[in-house]
Amino acid sequence: MSDEWLVVIDPQNIFASPESEWGSPFFAGAMENIARLAERFGERVLVTRWMPTADRSTSWGEYFTAWPFADQPPTDELFDLVPEAGSLSAQPTLDLPTFGKWGGELETIVGRGAHVVLAGVSTDCCVLSTALAGADAGAHLTVATDACAGSSAENHAAALHVMGLYPPQITLATTAEILA
Length: 180
What we know:
Helix content is 36%, strand content 20%. It has seven helices and six strands. Helix 6 links the parallel strand 5 (140-149) and strand 6 (170-173).
């Protein structure tokens, strides 16, 4: 595990709060497993945040019209990390205005062709988008199935099914399997 990274996707209030339109009912359970993984990965943990700073002249403009509650300044508490996530990593958060977090910024930190465990929210959006882009970039990805939270149980299962179609670039494992 010494060369592997744990990348925790978007453990933010906007995805954790039951009052949020994007709140996952599975967030708390996923965070328990994320904490277990982070303890094992030590200094090789990176936390990301989704930030609403995308170019509104693109399809993101329509997106924020559809989801006006999320059309807030990046300093809004909706985008803060949940308290449990604040101590997961000594690294600064990687803040991006995209669903998928895989790209040059992340690859610079973890390395090209890196071995990465993905966890976080939402399985059926940002985790899925990150995993597919990472696979295309040649990373070795393991999705921690019980350390991810979907928008619903059905959407979580569907996203895991899709990511499971991408071996050997993407594999699926539980937290216990990863820690074993």
